[in-house]
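Figure 6 in text form: structure in, sequence out.
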């Protein structure tokens, strides 16, 4: 699964969590004891759209895991159980006695079953997902398992869809099962729908029956066992774009308006499957791979076996993809088909075995497709997110004590996991690392695993006991905090390295390289830090130009190493790694010497990697560095093939002197990239320039978030009806992130609005605050209403919204008002 990342700081981030009952944390989270082995699940389902219910028949084939059993407990949440029947081998059926408490179905089998016996249970049920008390977490905003979108068909802006989300334990809301990640079975699902709908599920469609009454039954089958949380279904009106990897079928399922864009969104998939098959040493292990985009998804994306689901933000037109792509999400979910689906963490405590690897697969794809800089850039950004989380709430990566399993879906399991795997790869070298992965995937194929299994696989390949590495990184909280100091005296360089992390973390054993540049050449020295303070001496006839600690920049550590302005300039010029160059640009604000500053900026503006150029331009904007010396470089940047670089160069020019660069800005209104257009547009409007009616019409019609934000600035300067109508027209269909911002900027405009417009807005905000599927949209609408509390009835409305809100994060925030 991938977390949704929005550029919005949640207002409740400062919320203190000390209110939790301490005892709740102290429950040891064992992996589920296996009383039974679930062998096969056969489902026949149809839907009642009006009641938002699933009518199902589940036939489960089970065998006692080891010890003899005379009863079985199944997870089955918020269901109406119609009957439980034992199907005998002789074709005879016998009703069984059962108890049901709305979460578990306890069935008495009528006799003792040995581990050599199999039994078949047929359960007729109705799944009622809306009766399950929805929870929520950072990663998954709701957990009711089965979702009906626009069920009554009254929302003109939404298609009607049904989809499921099983992780962590919500599959048991739509079928009775043993809902634990260490269970695994084959499956067949027969889905009956109206003819206009497509269906999708795990595995291959093996049968399609038209009933001649406007309905149809599609039967999907997966003959390789997988965990219940990875079961999925989706129903909707879709365009299905076919593709293939080797001989295997692939398909991209998007809404029909996006049929022409699906290839641009998902088209790297075959190349990714080939890459991962090669790197992991195990060919993609399933019979097909589908990717589908659904409305109002509760997470970023989800790796159901052979059928990943993506949130609707991924559904974009081609032009959007000039500025970014969804490769991180796509590679992440794809890699889960090995890490998570083929080899599965036995408990949520071991979640990083799924998520750390999937996050690291993003690195592998970026490295292969876009180069090392891109891969490092993303890894470093992810490390920063982890550092932030760890400074607030450090935890062990593998943790057996937690309050709620959803809490495991955090920047530790994902980002720290990926960073640790990267260090392991660095330590072992690529050959041993990838062979270790092959060993792990092969030995544990179609099994559940815990962290020790991973260690043993690498040990088997490389021959070394790796407990030291796994213990310090997986079982302790925190990370090394390191101070490096250097002293050159009498032909000798002395480097002192101190580990200063707190007592909760160990003194780490850290193998790394130190790079010393002297007389124009670099020497690489391997060292292993093991003590709290280590000191190294190097004989050097002349003072070194630069010392780079951890020259591969692979360490998950906060390193402080003071450098002079000259050293930073040298580092900018000579260091290959992204992090070293980025560090030099970030050091600019410390550097007073104009010449050195200029040398770093000149190099950064010509850097082959867009993020370095971006940082340089960012610095120049913030510090109003005048363009004279850099005119030529800025001009080149403004024509760079990366739209990010072009947009930053343009922003720089616009901030520097709008009049002087007016022509260029005007031209950029026609740039192929939304990002560049939006910068030009914002600056154009801000400087009082007018748009032609053709431009106004075209920009007003766009739903790209950057254009929307620029246009909201334009419309906030206007007072005519059209300026209000534009907002109202957008609210129905733009994505949650755009909605978040637009609701806020419209609330500002409304301060001076006519009463009728305010009254109209109150109704719109009230609907969104109560009914929108996205909690950030609901939050923004609530905040907008706060600004309108002078309008009659709004106070009471706010009270009602507070009372109705089910999301715990919003509840906590609303309580302040
Ligand atoms: Zn994931």
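Output sequence:
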């Amino acid at each position: 699964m991938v977390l949704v990342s929005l550029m919005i700081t949640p207002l409740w981030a400062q919320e203190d969590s000390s209110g939790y009952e301490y005892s709740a944390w102290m429950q040891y989270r064992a992996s589920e004891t296996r009383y039974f082995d679930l062998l096969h699940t056969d489902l026949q389902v149809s839907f009642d759209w009006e009641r938002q219910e699933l009518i199902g028949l589940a036939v489960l084939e089970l065998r006692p895991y080891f010890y003899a059993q005379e009863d079985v407990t199944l997870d089955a949440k918020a269901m109406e159980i119609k009957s439980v029947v034992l199907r005998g081998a002789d074709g005879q059926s016998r009703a069984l006695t059962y108890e049901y408490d709305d979460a578990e179905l306890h069935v008495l089998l009528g006799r003792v079953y040995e581990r050599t016996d199999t039994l078949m249970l047929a359960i007729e049920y109705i799944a009622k997902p809306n009766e399950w008390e929805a929870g929520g977490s950072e990663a998954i905003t709701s957990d009711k398992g089965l979702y009906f979108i626009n069920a009554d068909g009254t929302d003109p802006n939404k298609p009607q869809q049904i989809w499921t989300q099983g992780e962590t334990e919500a599959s048991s809301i739509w079928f009775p099962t043993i809902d634990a990640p260490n269970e695994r079975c084959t499956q067949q699902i027969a889905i009956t729908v109206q003819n206009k709908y497509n269906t999708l599920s795990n595995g291959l469609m093996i049968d399609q029956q038209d009933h001649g009454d406007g309905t149809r039954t599609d039967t999907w089958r997966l003959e390789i066992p997988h965990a219940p949380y990875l079961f999925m279904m989706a129903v909707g009106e879709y365009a299905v774009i076919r593709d293939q990897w080797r001989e295997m079928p692939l398909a991209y399922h998007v809404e029909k308006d996006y049929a022409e864009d699906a290839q641009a969104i998902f088209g790297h998939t075959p190349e990714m499957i080939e890459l991962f098959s090669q790197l992991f040493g195990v060919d993609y292990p399933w019979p097909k791979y589908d990717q589908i985009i659904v409305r109002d998804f509760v997470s970023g994306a989800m790796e159901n076996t052979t059928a990943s689901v993506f949130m609707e933000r991924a559904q974009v037109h081609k032009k959007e993809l000039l500025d970014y792509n969804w490769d991180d999400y796509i590679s992440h979910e794809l890699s889960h088909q090995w890490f998570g689906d083929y080899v599965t963490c036995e408990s949520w405590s071991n979640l990083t075995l799924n998520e750390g690897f999937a996050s690291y697969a993003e690195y592998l794809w970026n490295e292969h497709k876009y180069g090392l800089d891109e891969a490092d850039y993303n890894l470093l950004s992810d490390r920063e997110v982890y550092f932030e989380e760890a400074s607030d709430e450090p935890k062990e990566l593998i943790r057996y004590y937690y309050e709620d399993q959803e809490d495991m879906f955090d920047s530790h399991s994902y980002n720290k996991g990926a960073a640790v795997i990267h260090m392991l790869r660095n330590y072992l070298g690529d050959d041993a690392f990838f062979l270790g992965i092959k060993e792990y995937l092969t030995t544990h194929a179609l099994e559940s695993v815990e962290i020790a299994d991973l260690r043993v696989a690498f040990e088997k390949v490389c021959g070394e006991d790796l407990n030291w590495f796994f213990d310090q990184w997986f079982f302790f909280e925190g990370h090394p905090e390191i101070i490096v100091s250097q002293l050159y005296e009498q032909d000798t360089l002395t480097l002192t390295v101190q580990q200063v992390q707190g007592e909760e973390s160990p003194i780490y054993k850290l193998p790394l390289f130190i790079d010393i540049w002297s007389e124009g050449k670099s020497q690489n020295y391997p060292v292993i830090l093991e003590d709290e303070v280590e000191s190294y001496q190097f004989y050097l006839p002349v003072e070194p130009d630069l010392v780079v600690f951890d020259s591969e920049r692979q360490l998950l550590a906060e390193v402080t190493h003071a450098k002079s302005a000259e050293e930073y300039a040298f580092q900018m010029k000579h260091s290959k790694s992204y992090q070293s160059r980025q560090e030099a640009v970030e050091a600019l604000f410390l550097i007073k010497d104009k010449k050195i500053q200029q040398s770093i900026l000149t190099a950064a503006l010509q850097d082959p990697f867009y993020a370095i150029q971006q940082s340089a331009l960012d610095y120049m904007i913030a510090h109003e560095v005048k363009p004279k010396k850099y005119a030529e470089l800025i001009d080149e940047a403004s024509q760079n093939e990366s739209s990010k670089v072009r947009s930053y160069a343009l922003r720089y020019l616009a901030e520097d002197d709008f009049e002087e660069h007016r022509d260029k800005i005007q031209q950029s209104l026609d740039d192929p990239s939304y990002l560049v257009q939006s910068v030009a547009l914002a600056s154009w409007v801000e400087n009082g320039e007018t748009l032609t009616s053709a431009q106004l019409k075209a920009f007003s019609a766009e739903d790209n978030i950057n254009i929307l934000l620029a246009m909201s600035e334009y419309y906030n300067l206007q007072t005519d009806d059209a300026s209000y109508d534009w907002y109202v027209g957008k609210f129905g269909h733009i994505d949650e992130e755009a909605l978040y911002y637009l609701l806020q900027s419209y609330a500002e405009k409304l301060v001076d609005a006519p009463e009728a417009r305010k009254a109209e807005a109150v109704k719109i905000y009230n609907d969104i605050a109560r009914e929108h599927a996205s909690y950030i949209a609901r939050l923004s609408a609530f905040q907008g209403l706060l600004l309108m509390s002078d309008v009659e009835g709004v106070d009471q409305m706010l009270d009602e919204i507070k009372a109705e809100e089910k999301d715990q994060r919003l509840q906590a925030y609303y309580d302040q008002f």
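Caption detail: The chain has 26 helices and 29 strands.
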